[in-house]
Amino acid sequence: MTKQHPAWSPYDNNGGTCVAIAGADYCVTAADTRMSTGYSILSRDYSKIIKLADKCVMASSGFQADVKALQKLLAARHLIYQHQHNKQMSCPAMGQLLSNTLYYKRFFPYYSFNVLGGLDNEGKGCVYTYDAVGSYERVGYSSQGSGSTLIMPFLDNQLKSPSPLLLPAQDAVTPLSEAEAVDLVKTCFASATERDIYTGDKLEIVVLNKDGIHREYMELRKD
Amino acid sequence: MESIQAKQGLVGPNDPIQRTQLPYVTGTSVVALKYKDGILMAADMGGSYGSTIRYKSVERIKPIGKHSLLGASGEISDFQELLRNLDELILYDNMWDDGNSLGPKELHSYLTRVMYNRRNKFDPLWNSLVLGGVKNGQKYLGMVSMIGVNFEDSHVATGFGNHLARPILRDEWHENLSYEDGVKLLEKCMRVLLYRDRSAVNKLQIAKITEEGTTISQPYALKTFWGFTAFQNPTAGAEGSW
Amino acid sequence: MSNSAIDVPSRGGFSFDLCRRNDMLAKKGVNLPSFRKTGTTIVGLIFQDGVILGADTRATEGPIVCDKNCEKIHYMAPNIYCCGAGTAADTEAVTDMVSSQLQLHRYHTGRESRVVTALTLLKKHLFNYQGYVQAALVLGGVDCTGPHLHTIYPHGSTDTLPFATMGSGSLAAMAMFESKYKEGLTKDEGIQLVVDAICSGIFNDLGSGSNVDVCVITKGHKEYLRNHLLPNPRTFVNAKGYSFPKKTEVLLTKITPLRERVEVVEGGDAMEE
């Protein structure tokens, strides 16, 4: 018989789903608050969304320890930026910074799946979607994490965005009103929770618009 | 000087130092919860060498500074080294003599970074840590895993406790638990762990931390029950069967 | 190569050729299809006048829930039921097979089936297949010798217990049993404890979820309480609903018939050897 000895892996997957939708003058970012490992729940109330700047929030799922390290790094970089430039970083700038930060760890990646939601310099909603090593794109809407495979096709169906190949370039923002977008996000999560075991407990929705930032919560299934 | 030495292994000057590649002596679950006046934490005193329970008087809950309690499961030597580091940290913090001191939140944050940095070096501290404390009327209870996963909650449990104790805690925990009810709840969890976790031993300590300070109980045993009639003659009705 | 090995009639037993092939394929990166597993919480307990079985109703395939309301308490005989965890196909097949053998046995003897008979048939089958039939079972029933509760592991070992749990939620459920079970529970207390144990699995184990099924077996009587509790209603429904456009976008309406490239001749010459 071979000797058993415990192995360890530097990575874990703590589950969770993130969605962001950009509109003409708003951006809705949402994530569930379940943190799990394997088949067990670690916490039912862990926020995956952090505010990086006045008009920029990030929702992240994946390996919590990496996500936390990433959040701390971005917060520190943003503090330096404020000291140097005496202003808040714009969302597109934060988008590029996040990409560079992820790529910097290309060969020992941050196992984190992020969406960045915010308002750009014109006050338009913007969403950036990433993979774990920093490839990114500005889009009208996106979903990341364990339930993304269930949510993304539904968003594609409801919010079909214009092809990025069209000339002249068309706005990627969705035509929905803010309230409609929030309802759409709630539906997405209620449905993903039905079928994805890593999504559930509670939904946290962050809405950014010209009035500022606003958070709301909705209960999800707890099984 | 110390850093040069630290970079060298015991085997040879060019070998990278490696401590815990696999754990030797380990402790099992720690269970902790918030109650009305502070934090309660429970852990048994077993130290397992593989599947042998080798030590039976290992203290796995220790006070850190004035406001915090640290409980650990996993490799005992790593925990004890960590305690030495934390002692130094608290000492140097004290030497500022500025009236400030590290609270549970700061210590938890520090431990989070220690664990995560060690995993980044592929040389983890083989522990799951529970940090609880009270400072300025604020209760704090958090957990850190071997690879740096961390969170705060109103009740936490490491290892097997996550599977066996937390379902009970989620059912029965509430914000206004009295000290007596908190201890009863922890004992209930520890009893289930004793029944179902093979590396648990019936000798445990329960620690309390409040604004007033820390108390760690003397080791004691729980009452157990093995008298179900179904255990006496399982094959009644079909003699000689299974 | 000699043919003798093929000519000798098969003497039964297990061939591991395919296992070796599968290991080889797995090493080359070929993934076998995933099966529907009931990452499950199933439980049973003995109360003052019989046995109560319980199960959740979630079936999963990896991280995805493939059945939100499946049945995991299987019929074995009028007085015997069996909860199944593991690969859904295996638990269903093995319980069906044994229940039909029990039926035949009843026709033959004209007596009520005994729980030990079911237990023996199940464990024999599972032991024969060395754990490859992935069924973890909680078997309960009441026969002429009284109430019985057993667990059966995939390799064929069995246990006789006053209370039992199985599946991925077994620890969460066992936490409830170990802290609340007493001997001589009444029927209502027994059902409540089974519901608590299943709910503990449903809410603490991600492999278990949805609803609670309960089956109460007493002397000469049984009650199958399908969906006894529905603790997980949907949390949000958009009042306006959603429309899903039926059409795919029409890109081209002109039809260009393809020119025939090959002429097919019916009844041509026979092929050469």
TrEMBL record, chain A:
Keyword Cytoplasm listed: yes
Matching InterPro entries: Ntn_hydrolases_N, Proteasome_bsu_CS, Proteasome_sua/b, Proteasome_suB-type
Domain of life: Eukaryota
Cellular component, GO annotation: cytoplasm; nucleus; proteasome core complex
CDD domains referenced in this protein's UniProt entry, alphabetically: proteasome_beta_type_1 (cd03757)
Record PROSITE patterns: PROTEASOME_BETA_1, PROTEASOME_BETA_2
GO biological process: proteolysis involved in protein catabolic process
Cytoplasm in keyword set: yes
Subunit structure: Component of the 20S core complex of the 26S proteasome. The 26S proteasome is composed of a core protease (CP), known as the 20S proteasome, capped at one or both ends by the 19S regulatory particle (RP/PA700). The 20S proteasome core is composed of 28 subunits that are arranged in four stacked rings, resulting in a barrel-shaped structure. The two end rings are each formed by seven alpha subunits, and the two central rings are each formed by seven beta subunits. The catalytic chamber with the active sites is on the inside of the barrel. Component of the proteasome complex.
Described purpose of this protein according to its UniProt entry: Component of the proteasome, a multicatalytic proteinase complex which is characterized by its ability to cleave peptides with Arg, Phe, Tyr, Leu, and Glu adjacent to the leaving group at neutral or slightly basic pH. The proteasome has an ATP-dependent proteolytic activity.
Protein name stated in the entry: Proteasome subunit beta
Organism taxonomic ancestry: Eukaryota, Viridiplantae, Streptophyta, Embryophyta, Tracheophyta
From TrEMBL, chain B:
InterPro entries, per database record: Ntn_hydrolases_N, Proteasome_alpha, Proteasome_beta4, Proteasome_bsu_CS, Proteasome_sua/b, Proteasome_suB-type
One GO CC annotation: proteasome core complex, beta-subunit complex
Subcellular location: Cytoplasm; Nucleus
Pfam families cross-referenced by the UniProt entry: Proteasome
Keywords noted in UniProt: Cytoplasm, Nucleus, Proteasome
Keyword Nucleus: yes
GO biological process: proteolysis involved in protein catabolic process
Function, as annotated: Non-catalytic component of the proteasome.
Subunit structure: Component of the 20S core complex of the 26S proteasome. The 26S proteasome is composed of a core protease (CP), known as the 20S proteasome, capped at one or both ends by the 19S regulatory particle (RP/PA700). The 20S proteasome core is composed of 28 subunits that are arranged in four stacked rings, resulting in a barrel-shaped structure. The two end rings are each formed by seven alpha subunits, and the two central rings are each formed by seven beta subunits. The catalytic chamber with the active sites is on the inside of the barrel.
Family: Belongs to the peptidase T1B family.
Protein name: Proteasome subunit beta
Organism: Citrus x changshan-huyou
Highest classification ranks of the organism: Eukaryota, Viridiplantae, Streptophyta, Embryophyta, Tracheophyta
TrEMBL record, chain C:
PROSITE patterns with a match to the protein in the record: PROTEASOME_BETA_1, PROTEASOME_BETA_2
Single GO MF annotation: threonine-type endopeptidase activity
Subcellular location: Cytoplasm; Nucleus
Catalysis performed (reactions): Cleavage of peptide bonds with very broad specificity
Major localisation: cytoplasm
SUPFAM superfamilies in the cross-refs: N-terminal nucleophile aminohydrolases (Ntn hydrolases) (SSF56235)
Tree of life domain: Eukaryota
InterPro entries reported for this sequence: Ntn_hydrolases_N (IPR029055), Pept_T1A_subB (IPR000243), Proteasome_bsu_CS (IPR016050), Proteasome_sua/b (IPR001353), Proteasome_suB-type (IPR023333)
GO cellular component term of the entry, any: proteasome core complex
Pfam families for this protein: Proteasome (PF00227)
One Gene Ontology term from the biological process aspect of the record: proteolysis involved in protein catabolic process
Active-site residue numbers: 40 (nucleophile)
UniProt keyword terms in alphabetical order: Cytoplasm, Hydrolase, Nucleus, Protease, Proteasome, Threonine protease
Quaternary assembly: Component of the proteasome complex.
UniProt function note: Component of the proteasome, a multicatalytic proteinase complex which is characterized by its ability to cleave peptides with Arg, Phe, Tyr, Leu, and Glu adjacent to the leaving group at neutral or slightly basic pH. The proteasome has an ATP-dependent proteolytic activity.
Similarity comment text for this entry: Belongs to the peptidase T1B family.
Protein name: Proteasome subunit beta
Organism: Citrus unshiu
Taxonomic classification: Eukaryota, Viridiplantae, Streptophyta, Embryophyta, Tracheophyta
